[in-house]
Specification:
The structure is a homodimer. Chain A is an alpha+beta fold. Chain A has six helices and four strands, in the order αααββαβααβ. Chain A folds into two domains: 83 residues, Winged helix-like DNA-binding domain superfamily/Winged helix DNA-binding domain (Arc Repressor Mutant, subunit A, Orthogonal Bundle), CATH 1.10.10.10; 48 residues, Periplasmic binding protein-like II (D-Maltodextrin-Binding Protein, domain 2, 3-Layer(aba) Sandwich). In chain A, the strands form two sheets. In chain A, strands 1-2 form a two-stranded antiparallel ribbon. A two-stranded parallel sheet of chain A has the order 3-4. The termini of chain A are far apart. Chains A and B meet through helix 4 of A and helix 4 of B. The structure holds a DNA duplex.
DNA sequence: TCAACTTACGAACACCGTAATGATA
DNA sequence: TATCATTACGGTGTTCGTAAGTTGA
């Protein structure tokens, strides 16, 4: 069972048609047919039934469709999460700190941070006044 | 991104080692390395970092691991569901019915059922007495 | 007879293992 | 130098598209 097989399966289920699924996926009809057949062989079940002119899901097909959609959603979320984390590779951070913290705490923290995310530039300004007071 | 890549990735994350993951999966080290590299290329992220002698997950790696485990669980559940539905291909059903129901309702129902699940044998006994009374 | 799916087959690509190379403690 | 990962490369299997065959209204 592969992602690709599930994607093809979902397209066929959505369109109730191998050929329309093929169009959507930019594949040919035989390629779609082969993927569905291979998926059916892999789990030893039948997912579609030809009823007259069009195609309907079997019970096993309906069941699998529910799982396939959940999996698909998870994959999408994972991709998005990766993209967002990717921001940490190219970000920029500006810091301001009162002198005590700046002198004793920050250097080691920043060192560890730069070590972990070398692509992020950090600008640091150390001042004698508390940050909140700088708004005045 | 493929299931196979995720499976390999999870094994590496579990063992903190490419070579032990390779053992578990009955693959060679280069094969594991290639799958991880391809997965990293696919989502444009890095999942492992070499720290001294062993390997640790990056932030992106930890994030992906959580998703991969969810996906893996879903796939397992789907497989089990398919297997259970598979029982409907080879099952056997014994029915008993009072005569009125047997005469008017059951024939069409059974016809539809046999049409849908031709592999299931059905034995039917029609009686004049309510089913519950047969326990006496 | 037309529309849709299946089968057949050759080309392109992906994945694996072996062997050689690189890095690190 | 010993261990672990990467790179290089040839063989095998998978997936694709094209073309021909089959089925059903």
């Amino acid at each position: 069972m592969t992602f690709h097989q599930l994607r093809v399966f979902m397209a066929v289920a959505r369109h109730h048609s191998y050929s329309r699924a093929a169009e959507e996926l930019h594949l040919t009809q035989p390629a779609v047919s082969a993927q569905v057949r291979e998926l059916e062989r892999a789990v030893d079940a039948t997912f579609f039934e030809r009823v007259g002119r069009n195609i309907v899901l079997t019970e096993a097909g309906k069941e699998l469709l529910a799982y396939a959609q959940k999996v698909s959603t998870l994959i999408d979320e994972a991709r998005i999460a990766m993209q967002e984390l990717d921001g940490l590779k190219r970000g920029r951070i500006a810091l301001a700190a009162v002198s005590t913290a700046g002198a004793y705490v920050l250097p080691s923290l920043l060192g560890a941070f730069r070590n972990r995310y070398p692509g992020i530039s950090i600008s640091l300004e150390v001042t004698n006044r508390a940050i909140v007071s700088q708004r005045g």
